[in-house]
Amino acid sequence: MAKITFDGIEIEVPDGTTILNAARQIGGGIVPPAMCYYTPLKGSGGKCRACLVKVSAGSAKDPRPMPKLVASCITTVQDGMVVENTINEQVMDVRKGIVEMLLINHPLDCPVCDQAGECSLQDFAFEHGLSTTRYEEERRTFEKIDIGPLIQLHMTRCILCYRCVYVADQLTPERVHGVLGRGDASEIGTYIENIIDNDFSGNVIDVCPVGALTDKTFRFKQRVWFTKPVNAHRDCETDKCNGHVTLWYKGKDVLRVTARKDEYGEVKEWICNTCRFDKKETSDWTLEGPAHINRASVIAQNHYELPVVNPQVILDLPESTTRELERNPPLRLGGLNN
Amino acid sequence: MGRKLLTEHINVEGINTFEVYRKHGGYRSVEKALKTMTPDEVTEEVKKSGLRGRGGAGFPAGMKWGFLAKPEGVPRYLVCNADESEPGTFKDRQLMTKLPHLLIEGMITGSYALGARTSYIYIRGELLYVLRILEKAIAEAYAAGFLGENILGSGYSLDLHVHPGAGAYICGEETALLESLEGKRGNPRNKPPFPAVQGLYARPTVVNNVETIAAVPIIVNEGGDEYAKIGIGKSTGTKLISACGHLNKPGIYEIELGLPVEEFIYSDEYCGGIWKGRELKAVVAGGSSVPILPKELILKTAAGENRLMSYESLSDGGFITGTMLGSGGFIAMDETTCIVKNTWNFSRFYHHESCGQCSPCREGTGWLEKVLHRLEHGHGSMHDIDLIVSVAKQIEGNTICPLGEAAAWPVAAAVRHFRHEFEWHVTNPKEATVPGAVYRGAAVLA
Amino acid sequence: MEPTTAPAKPQFSAAAQAEIKRLLTHYPEDRSKSALLPILHIAQAEFGGWVSPEVQDLVAETLNIKPIEVYEVSSFYTMYNLKLVGKHVLEICRTGPCMLRGSDELTEHLERITGAKVGETSPDGLFTLKEVECLAACGFAPVVQVREQYYEQLDTPEAVDAMLNELREQIHRPILSWEENELPNSLKNN
């Protein structure tokens, strides 16, 4: 075990834990943002530099500060380490700079992007960015690439986190896409026209922190904050899929199916394409209850997370009533959403 | 006249062949090391010599060797970094072309010290013709029993291979080089783990520059203490300086560290002064990534002392008034040089060479180039000058590998010392965009 | 990125296959992917100076790796030409030290003479102009590389013409043999 101090808070974690995961054990506003790191994906992290923190004391044995800021997602703790995140001005400044860098070539097309409302870049920019830009040059654009009937690749939005590449490497039998080109001309692609087609390919949508990979079956159907997440499961026959999902309802309709994500947007159980794309009837599923949504999320702003209302009940109500409930969600009436 | 250690025999006819090289004392260090020294004793001599990495970082080579993990039963590697591509640097190419056996001798002696049984020379792909020269020399060394099984009956065996890159400056960064050697994109790795623990194929690895490895035979032959007597202070030994730009005699010079910069530029023994009878304006002393210095500061330190060609003297004054010895890529610029254009050129280089893996470098290098392009072409504003300094600062120190710094430093230094020239481009866009136009005002001292 | 396609499945010559076999002995058996860069060089030399998707697939097959692993690498390194090129690719160094000694003028001169702009191939199909970054020959600037040959100190029209004439007369330059390779002039006499 190693005892560390993170933003003045002491915590003891197992040896080998990364600084980021130690901070996540503390939780709350002190947790550094992570745009590329993804716990279940081996090798991820270190690239976006959003999670840089100051190590003001390396360890009890060697209490010298580390000369440069370090990526908290890949740096493991040492006993006696002292880490500064939100309390360190340099860290906050650098983070502003990282937001700026990630945005200079981003199209900022949130109004037409399906990811809006659950986009890590949007959250990151909201929390750490400036409302103006100093970038006057032409923005980089890519042509849209078709990678099959189910997944849309919109490279212009990509921040090159490499997560989708790791998914293909670690979850699917044959990777057909990767990072091509170099520098700021790097792109995710298949090089020759190819479709990404295998049982688990849909997971690239869930791991994408931005709107670069989106679900074609959900495309432009609804803003996510007008949909209601409900956890559900089914007996899935696909090998390695246990059918634990989140259904996103609009009224009685299941508009999309995703894997379940934790509060840091990470999927713990991957789901297969059958569950994701083919099972969009409530009758396909056994409902468990509302999915937990972070209170700060825009998705929670509009909707309920109120255990008193069984979603099954809502689904059984006549449509006029559900519409009314949408206009006046019980959560607001209950005043619990503060 | 300084001592020549590496290049003593460089102009001997046929020195690129095993036979002639051997006749001139070649491979003595292999005999000495394998027959009379333990591997640790070889490492000890390198430590004593004070030899510093010649690729640019200047890290003590013996210390780097000392960090190598040696777990039982796990192969370890010595990899030679011959990916010479720092603009202004062209010494390794010359050394390998003319003295291939010196590098091979260093590889054998070094591999013995580190306990490597297979070693690689990673050479930049553009130098395929040098790869052929090395492979031919390696074949000769095998035939003479200096490579392969049971070298000189010592029981020590070594295989040595040459591996080409394919056009990527970033592969000079040691972990990118290892990725490339594994047949992948040259994306630098996150550190730790360092190559000394997990390098090539996740096994312990030392990566050294060509010139560093070429110095090993001399150190083993003469002894580390003797080597350390050459040079000045912590800058021991000799260094190959690649001199280029507006010099009368550009080329490669082996100097004893501690030579005054002024003598290096102006004496006939070295660069013979500035071409076309012009005045010196500025120097980039250690490859394109180190800070540019105006004439006044490259010849004398801020304190008025003679600037010397050594790690310490060149960095005297930090980045405010100093620079770095770096790789020894010495680029001289005469009075007609446009600093803005040159800075844009360097920025374009780093933009082109960024691997694109981490966001500050991928996005920042392109941003810098675009704004500098605007400034150079007369479309910039005063605000842009501060902008590039700010963007450079946002990259520096926040990237996975040192390419971030390499891209940021030249920009910051150019504005630091030549701000007036940038301002002139803003206030006189018409004059500034005339081909060959250059600001003739005095360089501004910090 | 839309590579041009070439017809018919390519195959390595016997000489190339022998060279590949030799290269594979350089790396641990389970690490044959290490040979990817050198094999791509061989492929480029074998198949007309560029690597088509079909050629890249052949390389993938040779190494028993996924095609995407080859595409990722070929598109990262600038020496691999992903599109059809002329008989000679003139790689003109444009970086600082060469620029200080006239690489801009050299490029303009070459564009004028060959009728091709940078990135294009001359109408006669002989020359493709390609700007590259530092070739590590800064002391002999300005510099052009053509395959394995360095042409240095191209600071006069005469020097450039001599280079082009030499190239025009070349029928085929052997690639896989070191014996045939000459040193650049600067290294011969320096």
TrEMBL record, chain A:
Domain 4Fe-4S His(Cys)3-ligated-type: 90-129
Residue intervals passing through the bilayer: none
GO molecular function per UniProt: 2 iron, 2 sulfur cluster binding; 4 iron, 4 sulfur cluster binding; metal ion binding; oxidoreductase activity
GO cellular component term of the entry, any: membrane
Nucleus among keywords: no
Main location: membrane
Names of required cofactors: [2Fe-2S] cluster; [4Fe-4S] cluster
Domain 2Fe-2S ferredoxin-type as annotated: residue spans: 2-89
Keyword Iron: yes
Annotated Pfam families: Fer2_4, Fer4_Nqo3, NADH-G_4Fe-4S_3
Location(s), subcellular: Membrane
Keywords: 2Fe-2S, 4Fe-4S, Iron, Iron-sulfur, Membrane, Metal-binding, NAD, Translocase
Family: Belongs to the complex I 75 kDa subunit family.
Name the UniProt record assigns to this protein: NADH dehydrogenase
TrEMBL record, chain B:
UniProt keywords, alphabetically: 4Fe-4S, Flavoprotein, FMN, Iron, Iron-sulfur, Metal-binding, NAD, Quinone, Translocase
Enzyme class of the recorded protein, top EC level: translocase
GO MF annotation list: 4 iron, 4 sulfur cluster binding; FMN binding; metal ion binding; NAD binding; NADH dehydrogenase (ubiquinone) activity; NADH dehydrogenase activity; quinone binding
Highest taxon above the source species: Bacteria
UniProt-listed PANTHER family: NADH DEHYDROGENASE [UBIQUINONE] FLAVOPROTEIN 1, MITOCHONDRIAL, NADH-UBIQUINONE OXIDOREDUCTASE FLAVOPROTEIN 1 NDUFV1
Purpose: NDH-1 shuttles electrons from NADH, via FMN and iron-sulfur (Fe-S) centers, to quinones in the respiratory chain.
Name of the protein this chain belongs to: NADH-quinone oxidoreductase subunit F
Organism whose genome encodes this protein: Hymenobacter lapidarius
From TrEMBL, chain C:
The organism's place on the tree of life at top rank: Bacteria
Cofactor(s) in the UniProt record: [2Fe-2S] cluster
Keyword Metal-binding (UniProt): yes
InterPro entries: NuoE-like, NuoE_dom, NuoE_N, Thioredoxin-like_sf
Residues reported to bind [2Fe-2S] cluster: 93, 98, 134, 138
Pfam family of the protein (one): 2Fe-2S_thioredx
NCBIfam families reported in the protein's UniProt record: nuoE_fam (TIGR01958)
Official protein name in the record: NADH dehydrogenase
Organism: Hymenobacter lapidarius
Classification lineage: Bacteria, Pseudomonadati, Bacteroidota, Cytophagia, Cytophagales
